[in-house]
Amino acid sequence: MNIGKLSIKNIFHKPLYSLLSLISLAISIGLLIGIRQMDTSIRRHFENSTGKIDMIIGAKGSPLQLVLSSALHIDNPTGNIPYRQAKKIAKNPLIKSAVPISYGDNYKGYRIVGTTQGFAPLYNAELQKGRSVQKPMEVVLGHSVAEKLKLSIGDTFLSSHGLVEEGAHQHSEPLTVVGIYKPAYKVIDRLIITALESIWEVHHHGHHDNEHDKHEEHEEEGHEEDGHKEITSMLVSFRSPSAFLTLPRQINENTNMQAVLPKYEMERLFQYTGVGVQAITWLAYTVLVISCITIFISLFKMVKERAFDLALLRTYGASNLQLVKIVAYEGFLIGLIAWMVGVLLSQMGMYYIFEILQENFKQIDIQKFPWQEALQIGVLVLFMIMLSITMAIPPILKMNISNILSNEK
């Protein structure tokens, strides 16, 4: 007696119940894997993107916006700050390094960041080809930028005003590629790095050429005005843990700038988003429980509706164990197919979601498939299916063969 074939026939004998069980179980598995993978990917990206940055100094405004714009480069800046004033704060003995950044331009959607030689070490970025920026209008490309835009050493391009590609005013001064970074798997992979002077020169020229740009540059980009240079923000690394307690408060209370701690702001952000993640997770677990109840009902109905067939098998020498195996194989087969379909659905969903994120932000990469978590979910599904099977087999063990056969006749 081929128990496997009998189990498959039972599945097709009641296709509606089987399909309903499979689809609901696959959706719950896909949701659980997908939401965990997405949450892990976004958290890891945000944590990696802060690099060695302990504090960010920028214009007054939303602290979270300052972190998102200056550390993660996925939002608009809160404004500009005087470079001279920021450099005075950087001389504090509690500060190990202070890296200025100024931005407001892009090339095909990838942000161009004006900064100093201290920017790359914040992300442990190393050169793969070429050299570092040595003079204005030279750029070093993040690895993903060079790969996606097919740029190499010696290529030139024109930057566009603003942080989005569409409808941006194009500058006339060309930028020349002099280097490409190795993959750092951090936000720097998707940035175009140049000197602060490049940003100032480009917008200084635009300041004279276009009155409309003059107003926007005052709000968004580093530029020169009345001889005073401005930057978007300053990325600070501390020398001592005591700086966390003193420096941000001093800057916020005694200057017209604000100082924020990116790790603290990220933790607050995750607390807010974590509520949504938990809600979707519990919804997925609810669907998982309902799916297993559906499987139990399906198996129980099969035992009741096909009692005569099972009794007949007993008369031909089949044991109770073999009949239980028919029920068990059916449950396990549905669970296995649902797990594979759920994994496929999760990856299709993640690919689609991260394609949208890449199109809008060009910053976030999907992490590798979480095999460990997928296997943990598989073990949970296996346990629940075993529970469903256990609840469905008592009628087999209590089956009165003679009564069933006589009543059928």
TrEMBL record:
InterPro entries: ABC-4/HrtB_transporter (IPR051125), ABC3_permease_C (IPR003838), MacB_PCD (IPR025857)
Keywords from the UniProt entry: Cell membrane, Membrane, Transmembrane, Transmembrane helix
The species this protein was found in: Galbibacter pacificus
Subcellular location: Cell membrane
Transmembrane annotation, as ranges: 16-35, 275-300, 332-354, 375-397
Taxonomic path: Bacteria, Pseudomonadati, Bacteroidota, Flavobacteriia, Flavobacteriales
Name of the featured protein: ABC transporter permease
Domain MacB-like periplasmic core stretches: 18-185
Membrane-topology descriptor: Multi-pass membrane protein
Record-annotated ABC3 transporter permease C-terminal domain positions: 284-401
